[in-house]
Amino acid sequence: MGPGIDLETATAEPYHAMKADDDDACGRGRRGCCSAVSSLLSAENEVLPVAVLSVFAILLIVGLTYREPSYSVDLTGYEGIDPGRAARIVSPSFNVTLRMNDTCVDSARAAVTYSGVALSWARAEPRDCAEGRWAKDVEVVARGGGVGLSRRLRDRMASDWRSGGVELDVSVTMYREGMDIPRTFNGKVKMVKRST
């Protein structure tokens, strides 16, 4: 048919085995298919590392600046109960200091318990969040009125008292306006003999 073309040989070779002449199209300065593919690949090669570095930088900044809130509780005094000889009916009051770091609290409820029995309770409203205070000591007086103690509980309290002190549990539930789920903290304090 044409000079120098063997049609039988050309049709016998599979299509994918034939060499394309892409190098000529790219080398002539024309924007052909190979230049579009190479620009797409180079754009992907630039976007992926930038995205990975951005995510890593955000995680690093959040990790360095975010601190988990911490809570602690101290017993600074008590009245209305003699742990060595507790009466059947007591009306104790406990001076409790709540320490809150890296958080804010609008209101809190505290309960002082011994062996699962609530001895006293209190409510505090420091209103820290509106003022932006993220560290605070809150002094509360937890009061109980007419709390009945069983014989077994009084005997256990007296035994603990003779052994060095009575350990109390303090459960604090903290509320923040605008948040539906309250945070809770359970701490332990110890009633020890006061020096006279």
TrEMBL record:
Entry annotated with the keyword Transmembrane: yes
Q: Which UniProt keywords apply?
A: Membrane, Transmembrane, Transmembrane helix
Sequence intervals crossing the membrane = 47-66
Q: Which domain of life is it from?
A: Eukaryota
The record ties this protein, via PANTHER family, to: OS01G0771700 PROTEIN, OS04G0515000 PROTEIN
Q: What is this protein called?
A: Late embryogenesis abundant protein LEA-2 subgroup domain-containing protein
Organism of this sequence: Panicum miliaceum (Proso millet)
